[in-house]
Design brief:
Number of helices: 8
Strand order of the largest sheet: 5-4-3-6-7-8
Number of strands: 8
Oligomer: single chain
Order of helices and strands: HEEEHHEHEHHEEHEH
Radius of gyration: 30 Å
Shape: elongated
CATH superfamily of the largest domain: von Willebrand factor, type A domain
Length: 331
């Protein structure tokens, strides 16, 4: 946990304690002495954005088969990414988009069409919180003071008025601080949103405008080759000390003709250890027998790749994918 995160969490805890302390105060604060009245706004609890200092890499592979395109799945991919990614990514995260290879000779260097990182943002300093006043003790009555009841009563009253005025002054200072702190938090949140929106918007533009003519054909996609090359790339990028979280995300029907072969007979060296994998199957439903066979076949391969595989099926694509990725990226 970095210094900025610790400062934000500490400030949040102090705010919570202060709000609980003065929660009983309403917009018009008045002391027991009717001649003394203080009016100030109710305090708020600032909601600070929390950046945990980690960086994530999301590698998206999209099928470029003409059947996939003509079924409207490229457009659905755009819709899904625009919905999910802004809710998960943060400044410093990297997004890569590539087509799934249609022949063995292409390689990632020819199929990657977007690779960028969300701009880092400078988080403004939170205003200094006002210091709570030290309580002014009430005078203690002694046997000797009984001889001076009138003087004692005046002393107690003076102490009460001073304590009350000091306390209410602090409440007003805190209310003012909480509003300024919330404005700072809102500005920070807006900067973070702009950074991520710019990244996702640029990726969406590339996905819309990229020339598919060289990829769109009816050939079976070479998914095994694509996975193997992606695993080598991600293995380098996701080594300790680089990206903290890595995700390989497929938008494909996963209809490689070799899928039913035993993994040990395929010649591809693939290791997806430390990399989370999700496959979005727009054409699959839970009650589809062929879909079930496809999932079972690929599950065997990804088990051999030393990773867990999550299938996102038609019905609640965006919600399911968001929940799964959120779990991966927040570990």
């Amino acid at each position: 946990m970095n210094k900025t995160t610790k400062s934000i969490i500490t400030a949040a805890l102090l705010v919570l304690a202060a709000v609980v302390l003065i929660a009983g105060c309403n917009a018009e604060l008045q002391s027991d002495n009717s001649s003394t009245a203080t009016v100030c706004a109710n305090p708020v609890t600032p909601q600070f954005p929390i950046l945990d200092g980690t960086r994530s890499l999301i590698f998206v592979l999209v099928e470029a088969n003409s059947t996939y395109y003509e079924a409207g799945n490229i457009h659905r991919t755009q819709t899904t990414l625009k919905y999910v990614l802004p809710k998960l990514m943060k400044p410093g995260d990297r997004l890569i988009l590539a087509w799934i290879e249609n022949n063995e000779l292409e390689g990632l260097n020819k199929t990657v069409f977007f690779d960028a990182t969300a701009d880092l943002v400078a988080i403004p300093m939170t205003p200094t919180m006002p210091t709570a006043p030290t309580s002014i003790p009430r005078p203690t009555e002694t046997p000797f003071a009984r001889l001076r009841e009138t003087a004692l009563a005046e002393t107690v009253q003076a102490a009460d008025v001073t304590s009350t005025a000091s306390y209410y002054d602090y409440v007003c200072q805190f209310a003012d601080w909480s509003k300024r702190a919330q404005s700072t938090a809102d500005a920070s949140r807006a900067q973070i949103k702009t950074s991520v929106d710019n990244l996702v918007g640029s990726a969406d533009t590339k996905l819309q405008s990229n020339d598919l003519a060289q990829f769109l054909d009816d050939a079976s996609p070479h998914i095994f080759e694509t996975i193997s090359r992606a695993s080598k790339f991600l293995g380098d990028m996701c080594a300790p000390g680089k990206y903290d979280h890595c995700v390989l995300l497929f938008f494909s029907n996963m209809k490689d003709w070799r899928r039913d072969q035993d993994p040990k007979y395929l010649r591809y060296s693939t290791d997806l250890n430390r990399i989370g994998v999700a496959v979005v199957l727009y054409s699959c439903r839970y009650d589809d027998d062929e879909c079930g066979k496809r999932i079972a076949a690929w599950q065997k391969h990804f088990d051999a790749y030393h990773t867990t595989l999550h299938f996102v099926l038609d019905g609640n694509i965006e919600g399911d994918l968001q929940n799964y990725l959120n779990d991966l990226l927040r570990r």
